[in-house]
Amino acid sequence: MMLIGSAVAPIAQAQSTEAPDSVLFGVGYEWSNYDNDINALTGISLENILVDVMKAADDSGIELVLAEVTSGSSSVIIDQYDGDNTTWYDANLDESLELTKVHTDVFVRHGVLVDTAVITSWADLSMESDASWDVIYSIDSQQLFTLDAEYIEYIDADGLLHGMDLQLSMNSQQTLEIDFMGEISGNDETLPFNVQLDAMVNYAINDLNSEVRLAWASPIHNYVSSDYEEVSWECENDANQGGFLQFDEERVSVYDECDTFTGDYNTSSHYSLALSGIPAEDIGLEVDELDVSIADQFDSTGHFDEDEIELGGYIEFGDFLQEVTIDEAGTEVLAVEMLGAPFSITMPSVVAMSAEKAVMGDGTSPTMWDAIAEEVQDLVGGVEGDDGDGGDGEDDTYTCDNGEEIPRHWVNDGFEDCDDGSDEGVEEEGQGEDDDTYTCDNGEEIPRAYVNNGYEDCEDGSDENVDDGEGGDDDREDGDCYDEEGYMVPCEDDEGPELSERLEAIINAFSESTIESTMEAFGENLEDRLGNYEEDLAYVNADARMLWSEELGKCVGFQILVEDEDGEWYTLVGPESDALPAAPISTSIEYIIGGSSAKDEIVQMGSQDSLDDLVDESGHDVTDVDDAIRGDTPADNNTNTENNTNTDTNNVEDNSDEKDDANESVDDAEKLASEGGFVPFVSPLATIGIIALAGFAITRKRDKPFA
């Protein structure tokens, strides 16, 4: 927070500033620039690292080709301004008040496409075994997130806050397509597989409106000031609390009484999951037991009137002052460093609590989250049980009194899924029957599962050492098993799944192969290659903070600051500053300030609600990824495409030649990678894996250590 507070002398007094019509700031980024930015800041090329990973694998006898293309953009803009006046009647004062609508608008757009392919093969060349693998893994991922929020605070001429309104819409969509195909072999046995996973979750708050009204006008905005080191705010509907202030040296806390918190919402959600191709029979399951296909769609409209209101916020100020430029007209304001949300102290909790009400629903009908949890539970139970019914032998469906059929696990789940509500309050088979209890010799009754559990639950101890047939383990239901201390634990099948003879033969072949020494060699080769990298860090330290204008009473921007080896600090991302020059080595992050171009961008963002709007698909060239999956390489462009694109499960074994073609020359893959064809952009998620892989091997060579 105060990393550079002593580097530049604080400015003692704020200068007069003509307030702009609005205070606007934000950030935008094109993810295709990510590789170049990492290279500029670290001196290390992620593409080169991936090439060396492939070479290290080749040195070890493992053929490995990596390909990835990622495209997309992200942007966030915050706009704060004073709107029209309105008249409110204050019952406490018994008079009408003229209030100003103080707006905070937030716009978020994020869209990313990722296509990835990993092709690998290995064969034991020793005389120990004939173990081998030949695998192609591909993934297609799409991410979309949009948000528009308008937050209004009603403030009187004395700066007192009377209430807040929120209008919000949001859309989040994640899709994932994974293909995992190939074969593993050993002891003259081959196990082909073609696993396919398609998953999608889409959740949208189409419209959310909420309002908070205070029992008494709050002075919170009169105390959000850098005159204090810390400012906190709490608002609850506690009539005994009222409103009061608490001071503690350089800290101030404002406690308000919230009168009402109400709202309406309209949401829609959709999810789907399809999984196929897992060789279930080879791992001791039914042939279709792991084939999954589920999907559902929900629309929800509701109203909330919260009984327990708990809102709050927190801001912390530093003492480093600087003049920063906040718009295209060159308006300069004196700003102090701030830790907190980049808008009103009251806004984050109101948004969070309102969104929670929309997401979780009013409890009268199941939500998408309930359905997903139930589907997963049902799937797990189906795998563990004998008939896809959770192991209890019951039918998968329940017939309502009106003849309607619903999934049995919806019975007694707290929601009326039958139109006539007959699925709730159902007395299940066995409920209330004598078999559920055991009668002690003294007449006392205990749950039958307590019999022979190692503890004397009957006062006379007659529940222990009971003969079979009267109680005990043989009479317990599935799941009623106990450890040595008498605690209930899940029952385990001592035998476990029965592996097929084919899979056991392949496992034995790998256990007798040189795979362990191969992986050790891969690790050593990787360390040797990555050990040659020398970091050339542009900066050795970093800090981030929000910027607060005392005179405007608003957050006016944010900064990412960096320090070089000479102890000089710069602005890497943020507005122009009279105290901190722009960083000599920059990134592609676009910092947005107020002005006509920013207003035009907001208008444009309003129409960007799909991936097509946020991603330039013309620049998302997945040719190399597709070629890698098909088996085409630069040296083998004449591969029969028609044959190579056949991924039908029944033809997996016939695709081995294609995968051999894909891995025929790792040098070709390395050449393509170095030319930017493969891995033209490495995603942030892939970067984490690369750093984890390379971190132990990269040597640090500097004239001086980190400051």
Report on the structure:
The protein has 707 residues and is of the alpha+beta class. 20% of the residues lie in helices and 38% in strands. The chain is built from 14 helices and 22 strands. The protein has helices spanning 34-42, 46-59, 220-223, 347-360, 368-384, 501-511, 515-530, 596-605, 611-614, 623-630, 641-644, 656-662, 666-674, 684-694; strands spanning 22-30, 63-90, 95-123, 132-155, 161-186, 189-218, 230-236, 244-248, 251-276, 292-305, 310-325, 332-339, 397-399, 405-407, 437-439, 445-447, 481-482, 488-489, 541-549, 554-563, 569-573, 590-593. The protein has a 16-stranded mixed beta sheet that branches. β8 (244-248) and β9 form a beta hairpin. Mean pLDDT is 78; it is low at 1-16, 386-394, 430-434, 469-479, 633-682 and 688-707.
Percentage of β-strand residues: 35-45%
Radius of gyration: 32 Å
Main pleated-sheet profile: 16 strands, mixed
Determine the fraction of residues in helical runs and give it as a percent range: 10-25%
Envelope shape? globular
What would you call the quaternary organization?
A: single chain
Distance from first to last alpha carbon: 16 Å
Can you tell me the residue ranges where pLDDT is under 50 for at least 5 consecutive residues? 1-16, 386-394, 430-434, 469-479, 633-682, 688-707
**What structural class results from the helix and strand content?**
alpha+beta
The mean pLDDT is 78
Count of helix runs: 14
Number of strands: 22
Task: Give the helices and strands, then pairings.
Layout: E1 22-30, H1 34-42, H2 46-59, E2 63-90, E3 95-123, E4 132-155, E5 161-186, E6 189-218, H3 220-223, E7 230-236, E8 244-248, E9 251-276, E10 292-305, E11 310-325, E12 332-339, H4 347-360, H5 368-384, E13 397-399, E14 405-407, E15 437-439, E16 445-447, E17 481-482, E18 488-489, H6 501-511, H7 515-530, E19 541-549, E20 554-563, E21 569-573, E22 590-593, H8 596-605, H9 611-614, H10 623-630, H11 641-644, H12 656-662, H13 666-674, H14 684-694
